[in-house]
Amino acid sequence: MVRETGAGVLPFCLFALLPLLAACGGSEKAYDATGTFEATETTVFAEQSGALLTFSVNEGDSIGQDQEVGLIDTTQTWLKIQQLGATKEVYQSQKPDMERQIAATRQQLAKARQEEQRYRELVADGAAPSKMLDDASSQVQVLQKQLDAQISSLTTSTRALDKQTAAADVQVSQLRDMLRKCHVTAPTRGTVLEKYVERGEFVAVGKPLFKVADTQDMYLRAYVTSAQLQTVKLGQRVKVFADYGDQQKKEYEGTVSWISSRSEFTPKTILTDDERADLVYAVKIAVRNDGYIKIGMYGEAKF
């Protein structure tokens, strides 16, 4: 009878301990850190002032990098470029033809040098007074100085016109840069999150036009305690779970891309491995989005 009693008590005890054992076994958390999914967001501003002639942006649209999505009125900028082009032609037409303008003086100088040489020979033979040679030499010197002055003046005028032409070229380059900035383009690929203006509105320099986020390469911003830091390193492969609510989760492969070097107080919406921890460190875990992860969605990480 004692044996029967012992055999009956043992199964009963095991049955009573099963819930406790299950509770102990299930006490291990399925995650090491929690956080929310974020994306790199970029706000695009107007770089020129004018009426927004076209603007093909809507919230939720997917746009590619350098894709043109709008155009600011370019009329005045284009007219200034045409005006400067005409101004450059005027400068070019004013440039002197140096060889033609000094040709007469060169010819006079050559003639004077011939006269000087002839009088030098006559004086040497005693057939002409030395004064005539002096007058011929003086004439050569005068014509040489006139030629030098003409060349200097024409060179200065040419350089001034060249500088004016170069300045016009710089202005044209500036205007072409302004013209380029009238074309509104997306600086990065992504999804349009917010739209701030409509087609036809007048926009000024610095006015925000729209916000775009790269929703393909997202990251989970999670928080770990100081005790967990020794188990986390850059480039580490991590299991990431996107939480859709009602215990619906989807697993992704992630990589630790950033670890904060400064602690902060635990955000109220964040659960940590040690719930008593007051200070935590933020980490970013890069995740390739398959289209189901949304900005602000709750997520978990298992290191």
Key features of this structure:
single chain; six-stranded antiparallel barrel; 4 helices; disordered N terminus
Distance between the termini: 55 Å
- Unreliable segments of 5+ consecutive residues: 1-27
Number of helices: 4
Biggest sheet record: 6 strands, antiparallel, barrel
Provide the spatial order of strands within the biggest beta sheet.
1-8-12-10-9-13
Number of strands: 13
Average pLDDT, rounded to a whole number, is 87
Structural class: alpha+beta
Helix content: 40-55%
**Cα gyration radius (Å):** 43 Å
Strand composition percent? 25-35%
What string gives the helices and strands in order? HEEEEHHHEEEEEEEEE
Shape: elongated
Describe this structure in words.
This protein is of the alpha+beta class and 303 residues long. It has four helices and 13 strands. It has helices spanning 2-25, 75-94, 98-125, 130-181; strands at residues 33-45, 50-55, 62-63, 68-72, 183-185, 190-195, 202-203, 208-224, 237-243, 249-259, 264-265, 279-288, 298-302. A six-stranded antiparallel barrel has the order 1-8-12-10-9-13. Strands 5-4-2-7 form a four-stranded antiparallel beta sheet. Mean pLDDT is 87; it is low at 1-27.
